[in-house]
Design goal:
Elements lengths: L5 H24 L6 H8 L3 H8 L2 H24 L6 H16 L8 H9 L5 H26 L9 H22 L3 H23 L3
């Protein structure tokens, strides 16, 4: 028989509820603006209560990065995996990312785009955590492209790392410009640009001698 520690269970629930607010705040005010005191005010808790859940400010920031990665996995990666491997899955990944940003899963758009702009030139544990998660996303996207080449959906000579870089650049541009100009038009432009980019790979496949 397993005995559950009620205090620990309540603490886990509190931590999750507070973290949901913390991650959203970080996309607007920045991870550096995420403080024990500020978060305590936002969730109507004492500073001691927040400190008890997360410890230091850096631990709070790192917890926010982890939580954001889990949300990204749930709303972008998992749904796309239901699509058949190859070009359908690649399209599903791209569309899921655009929906994630456009539908404002986080008030400030993509969490990792905001964190990158804030920490790209600031060494430390937070930057390392952001970079590690972005690297995993880029590698996953490149893997989906590799699979599309393997299935014959994209041209044999396609460079998955390069194509993933170009697609990511378009997605990030759509996120940033949508926020800056308060417009959904950048998402439409990103979809058009990505479609054209993939169409060139399809054309290359069709032109390949048999």
């Amino acid at each position: 028989m397993t005995v559950t520690d009620g205090r620990r269970a309540r603490g886990d629930v509190s931590r999750q509820a507070v973290m949901a607010i913390a991650v959203d705040l970080a996309t607007v005010s920045g991870l550096d603006g995420l403080s024990i005191g500020g978060l305590a005010s936002a969730v109507s808790m004492s500073k001691g209560g927040i400190a008890g859940l997360f410890g230091s400010k850096e631990e709070l920031q790192l917890a926010a990065v982890t939580s954001a990665a889990e949300i990204f996995q749930r709303v972008v990666i998992v749904p796309a995996l239901t699509a058949p491997a190859g070009l359908p899955r690649l399209h599903a990944l791209i569309e899921a990312w655009l929906d994630y940003s456009e539908n404002r899963v986080f008030s400030g758009g993509c969490f990792f785009a905001a964190a990158t702009a804030e920490y790209r030139s600031r060494p430390g544990a937070v930057r390392d955590a952001v970079a590690a998660n972005l690297r995993r996303w880029h590698e996953f996207l490149a893997g989906a492209i590799t699979r599309a080449v393997t299935t014959g959906d994209l041209a044999e000579g396609t460079d998955p790392t390069q194509l993933a870089f170009e697609i990511s650049a378009m997605l990030d541009a759509a996120n940033d410009q949508s926020l800056l100009f308060d417009s959904a038009k950048p998402y439409a432009r990103a979809r058009t640009a990505v479609d054209a980019l993939l169409a060139r790979q399809l054309t290359a496949r069709a032109a390949r001698p048999t």
